[in-house]
């Protein structure tokens, strides 16, 4: 499934500075989010990204969850080897989430529309069809991207014509190179 988390301008904290943290940072780099790494030890590549001001680096050992109140991140990614610390961070994040839940529910009701849900349905139908018709993952991804960018499908969804939008998506898959 093609999922765009829309992390633009969001605050992401990565706890840990090893190879796993580096993988997570690399996957976030094109999201235009504000990445802060908190760790007492980091890889040379993470240090380089900090020097280039592509990420923020706070060199310190994390022993508790106080950083959540200090940084107020939108997302926290734990990559430490300390399972107990990771769990404490997750639990603290859940507590904070519960406090914000009512506010978030109001926001999500405004953000996620019926059209968004229809787009997701079309994605699933198209994904299933591409698995049957298209051999390589790269080609499937290209096909799915073209379906999601198709103006006619967008208009059909806006007009509430889901069956026609589904047929259009299937036609694109059938006619794919």
UniProtKB/TrEMBL annotation:
Signal peptide: none
Pathway where it operates: Porphyrin-containing compound metabolism; siroheme biosynthesis; sirohydrochlorin from precorrin-2: step 1/1
EC number(s) recorded for this UniProt protein: 1.3.1.76
Keyword tags: NAD, Oxidoreductase, Porphyrin biosynthesis
SUPFAM superfamilies according to UniProt: NAD(P)-binding Rossmann-fold domains
GO terms under biological process: siroheme biosynthetic process
Gene3D superfamilies per the UniProt record, alphabetical: NAD(P)-binding Rossmann-like Domain
Entry coiled-coil feature ranges: none
Class of the enzyme per the UniProt entry, highest EC level: oxidoreductase
Cross-referenced InterPro entries: Met8-like, NAD(P)-bd_dom_sf
A Gene Ontology molecular function term of the record: precorrin-2 dehydrogenase activity
The keyword NAD belongs to this UniProt entry's keyword annotation: yes
Protein's name in the database: precorrin-2 dehydrogenase
């Amino acid at each position: 499934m093609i999922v765009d988390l829309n992390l633009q301008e969001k605050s992401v904290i990565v706890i840990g500075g090893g190879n796993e943290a580096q993988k997570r940072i690399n996957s976030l780099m094109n999201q235009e989010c504000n990445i802060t790494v908190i760790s007492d030890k980091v890889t040379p590549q993470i240090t380089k990204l900090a020097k280039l001001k592509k990420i923020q680096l706070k060199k310190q050992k994390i022993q508790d969850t106080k950083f959540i109140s200090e940084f107020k991140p939108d997302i926290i990614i734990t990559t430490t080897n300390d399972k107990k610390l990771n769990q404490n961070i997750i639990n603290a994040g859940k507590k904070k989430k519960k406090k914000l839940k009512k506010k978030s529910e109001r926001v999500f009701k405004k953000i996620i529309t019926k059209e968004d849900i229809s787009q997701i349905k079309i994605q699933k139908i198209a994904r299933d069809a591409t698995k049957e018709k298209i051999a390589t993952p790269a080609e499937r991804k290209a096909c799915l991207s073209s379906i999601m960018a198709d103006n006619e499908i967008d208009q059909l969804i806006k007009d509430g014509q889901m069956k026609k939008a589904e047929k259009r998506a299937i036609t694109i898959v059938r006619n794919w190179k």
